[in-house]
């Protein structure tokens, strides 16, 4: 009976964990460039003894492409294909993101709302307008004419699934992910940069809602298992009468 | 009563694994023995449904067979859970840190390589490794095999196990009552 109780309890704990992941996905479903994650579980079994329930194995990043949508931002960028934008945080720390809602600042830097600046990009304040082409080349219009202001490079990793999320759509490299390698956007079969577009999160709200329903019902089913085991214990305890 | 308990243990273990990828549900089989009914769990035939995930190295087997993975201690185990992640060195690991092995030892997947339906790792047109598969089975990348547990079936099992436990309790109580009677009343000399 203890085994039944224990197995059902591991199931409840697993679904709780599952819900945490789904809730995190759902709460970030509006964040541009956000990548959802998936919790995986495996059976817990002792050799020769049969099942003892389930155990959470860990979570995987789901690095699939999000949909690109036209946006109203003045310097919105989206990556079509693999790779990440190279960005630098306020304290000089390097990070990688696919969230491309950048804006030009007075000091020439191009930053997103969280303060991450595109690395190696500087657009003088007197530039009237700036655009980015498919291959990452930045062109700015000045009163005297148009000038090329460098090129945006992207980062790729040997094991991008092993990047560590540092909130929102930003990641940092880990020993497991390997160091960032620079790649240039633009080639035929490589990533391309879309100016004036944003990559939406790859979390589907409908799918997440369905996952929540399933997780909740699975939680309930496990709770019923606990109840049934408890009921059996009660009956067993009442065997001895008067 | 012991048989009903075992049935409940099997059902709760199944329900707990409703989200475990590649999990095959256990069925309770009852046997009549000279000492009453004995219930043992056996893996059920059949596999869970495939669901699309879109990750390159989520692998699902259609047909018989299982992935051979090696854990940190060097033990090779078989599993149908195919959620792998490509590491820096090209090996594929599952979330438990176990490495997928192919026909020639640890499988290595070069940059940009893919896995086709016959379990071959293709780098361009070149075959650089193969997943061990019995003939007739195929591998589908971008899919995972869901648990084969159906919560409804399991809930019915939980319910019926509880009820047969109750019935068995009634029998025990009846036997106990009869013995009480024989000890307390029949044996009394009037």
Can you offer a commentary on this structure?
The complex is a heterodimer of chains A (242) and B (190). Chain A has two helices and 18 strands. Chain A is α+β, with helices and mostly antiparallel strands and 242 residues long. Chain A folds into two domains: 2-62 and 203-237; 68-199, no CATH class. In chain A, strands 5, 6, 9, 13, 14, 15 and 16 form a seven-stranded antiparallel β-sheet that branches. Chain A has a four-stranded antiparallel β-sheet with strand order 8-7-4-17, with no helix packed on it. In chain A, helix 1 (2-27) runs antiparallel to helix 2 (205-237). The longest helix of chain A has 33 residues, at 205-237. The two termini of chain A are 25 Å apart. The relative contact order of chain A is 0.21. Chain B is of the alpha+beta class and 190 residues long. Chain B is built from two helices and 15 strands. In chain B, the strands form six sheets. Chain B has a four-stranded antiparallel β-sheet with strand order 6-5-9-10, with no helix packed on it. A three-stranded antiparallel β-sheet of chain B has the order 11-12-13, with no helix packed on it. A two-stranded antiparallel ribbon of chain B has the order 1-2.
């Amino acid at each position: 009976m203890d085994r039944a109780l224990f197995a059902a309890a591991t199931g409840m704990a697993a679904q709780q964990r599952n819900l945490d992941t789904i809730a995190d996905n759902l709460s970030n479903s509006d964040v541009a460039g956000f990548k959802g994650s998936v919790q995986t579980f495996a059976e817990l079994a002792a050799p020769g003894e049969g099942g003892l329930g389930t155990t959470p194995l860990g979570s995987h990043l789901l690095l699939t492409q999000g949909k690109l949508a036209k946006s109203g931002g003045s310097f919105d960028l989206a990556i079509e294909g693999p790779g990440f934008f190279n960005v630098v945080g306020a304290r000089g720390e390097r990070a990688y993101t696919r969230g491309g809602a950048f804006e030009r600042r007075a000091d020439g830097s191009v930053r997103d709302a969280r303060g991450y600046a595109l690395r190696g990009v500087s657009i003088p304040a007197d530039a009237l307008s700036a655009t980015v082409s498919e291959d990452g080349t930045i062109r700015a219009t000045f009163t005297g004419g148009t000038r090329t202001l460098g090129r945006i490079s992207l980062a790729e990793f040997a094991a991008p699934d092993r990047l560590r999320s540092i909130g929102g759509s930003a990641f940092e490299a880990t020993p497991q992910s390997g160091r960032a390698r620079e790649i240039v956007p633009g080639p035929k079969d490589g990533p391309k940069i879309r100016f004036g577009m944003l990559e939406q999160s790859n979390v589907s709200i409908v799918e997440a809602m369905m996952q929540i329903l399933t997780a909740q019902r699975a939680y309930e089913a496990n709770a019923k298992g606990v109840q049934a085991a408890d009921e059996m214990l009660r009956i067993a305890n009442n065997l001895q009468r008067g | 009563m012991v048989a009903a308990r075992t049935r409940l243990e099997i059902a709760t273990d199944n329900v707990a694994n409703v989200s475990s990828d590649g999990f095959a549900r256990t069925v309770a089989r009852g046997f009549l023995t000279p000492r009453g009914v004995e219930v043992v769990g056996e893996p059920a035939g059949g596999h869970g449904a495939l669901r699309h995930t879109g990750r390159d190295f989520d692998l699902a087997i259609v047909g018989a067979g299982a992935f051979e993975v090696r854990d940190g201690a060097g033990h090779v185990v078989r599993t149908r859970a195919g959620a792998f992640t490509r590491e820096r060195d090209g090996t594929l690991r599952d979330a438990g840190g176990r490495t997928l092995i192919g026909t020639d030892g640890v499988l290595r997947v070069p940059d940009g390589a893919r896995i086709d339906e016959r379990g071959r790792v293709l780098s361009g047109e070149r075959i650089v490794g193969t997943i061990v598969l019995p003939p007739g089975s195929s591998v589908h990348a971008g899919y995972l095999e869901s648990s084969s547990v159906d919560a409804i079936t399991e809930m019915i099992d939980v319910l019926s196990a509880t009820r047969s436990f109750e019935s068995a309790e009634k029998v025990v109580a009846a036997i106990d009552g009869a013995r009480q009677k024989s000890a307390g009343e029949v044996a009394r000399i009037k």
